[in-house]
User: What shape does this take?
Amino acid sequence: MKRRIIIICATVITTFSVTGTYLYLTSQQTSAPERTSSMTKKDLPTSKPKDSNQHDKDKKIGSNKENFKLETGFGNKTLEVGRLTGRVSQESVNQNKNFEIKLTNDKTAAAKKKGSSKLNNTTPNNTLPSKAKPGKVNPGKQKPTEEAPIQDINFYDKERVMDPIDAQLESLDIAALEEKEHLVIGADIAKLQNLITTNQLSYKELAGIYLNRIKKHDQNGIMLNAITEINPTIIAEAEQLDNQNESNKPALYGMPVVLKDNIGTITLPTSAGTVALKDWVMEKDAAIVDKLKTNGALILGKTNMSEWAAAMDDGVPNGYSGKKGRSKNPYSSELDPLGSSSGSATAATCDFAAIAIGTETNGSIILPAGAQSVVGFKPSQGLVSNEGIIPLSSRFDTPGPLTRTVTDAYLTTNVLMDEASQTPLSKDALKNKRIGLLSDDESNEETAILKKIKKDLTTAGATVIEGITLEELEQVDADYITLLNADFKRDLNQFLQINRSPMSTLESIIAFNKINPTRNMKFGQSELVASQNNTMTKQEADNVANELIHITQNELDSVLQNERLDAIVSAGVGGSVKFLAPIAGNPELTIPAGYDTESNQPKSLTFVSKRNTDIALLNMGYAYEQISKNRKNPVLTNQ
Assistant: This one.
């Protein structure tokens, strides 16, 4: 009897063991492992550039977690997980997914690790205002990607924002502010100025309403986490303007403005989202801040951004900084905020300020504007000064506005460009214009939104030319990434030293991050290391840049000229024109185009015209906006 019981027990145990082993092995092959946030303390070499073989080794788990790349064996294939980054590449710009999971051959995966590890979906991790990272999916060859929800990521240092808000709100009647709040939501600059002129509102009350909204919705409530710094004297400054009772006021007089956290200010810290510089107050304002103040604008605070303009690491989520944590898309917590200027886009769309300013190297204004249903304008290269802005690449970095209307973008751009003309924009600006509809992204699908776009353009008087295509310049992708690595290291070191930063070199910042990797480099710093290891000389970088600019300008110019187009338009987040235009230096204007009926995801339309035709482009965008009237305010409730 005992023998029989022993045999039965042994059989049961064996069965459970075999079954458990089978289920475990099966789960390992069908699911990706969770990303770990812990980082190895093993130092990376910072003096010698990595060879390609070492680069491949560093991308594997366990070899070097600072260059972390999620992989797992899957038969004879490799499971890769990519995401939208802050920088845009021509390859990545054609995707519109928060995360993608795809199977590739081992050889293909190895080649990608070597050639495109820096390009990661819609905005290169540096963004475009950052470095580009390819990750393009060819709709004709790739299987549909699976989408994973964005997880809440740390929300840091709430008191940094709340203390100056609470201190200033103490002197205000909150009930009175909230009674007038509906007047401000969605209002453009002209309406706000009219409310103040007619004594329905004061500049002090306007600033107070914005502070109270930041308190309720950004630092509490749904905790959008878009704001990193608050001007502790903005209420006093606004009250002073109320008392002055000026006549012939500039358009931006008394308008509270928030600035991306890489734009230098003499009173507030400027950090580019990094812990290493979170308390650094520069000795002077950036050139554009001087212009804003000269025109009467009030600096309300700073906005969250993808750390180092997305030049930190491929694994850093869009809108995440070590300084403040992850900012969210107010239209849905499941949607990516996109781009390194994501916090500025959130501030604009949620009425946390009258105006928001971002910066773009390649996609960092345009992409978050499209993802969060605001107007984003990237001026022609060189028309707006980037002096006093922490650089990604000083040759490409361009500041620009994110606003709720095209008119507000126009008024703000006039100030940034020192443009004296205030000629009103025209509703007829699209009449008799030839507009080319790009067909390399969502424009391929005859969606209801696309049908409305074509109808609205036609109703505004434009002739829509469909089927416009641009060459997919893959070598430009690779060379652009290498160039941005070189520019970032050189330009950042020079900027830090000239402005007497507490961290004087990129190398010292990399070392600082290793002191507390959980906070300082939660997702790694492989992009910083790649830039530090870049050995391209200044002359070599200039030669590469000149060639890339020539190629991209030639491509855009030939399409515009051959088709006799006044502008090219691209629907949705994708579109190779959004990658090429910032390199070529052409102006870009993104405008809300509608919303997905199921997910509430904002959709956008981006206009690109010839270089230095900024005012004409803004006019065309205004004409489209007035016909389409697509934008809706987000509902700021827990989702």
In short: The chain has a mean pLDDT of 81. The radius of gyration is 25 Å. The chain is about 40% helix and 15% strand.
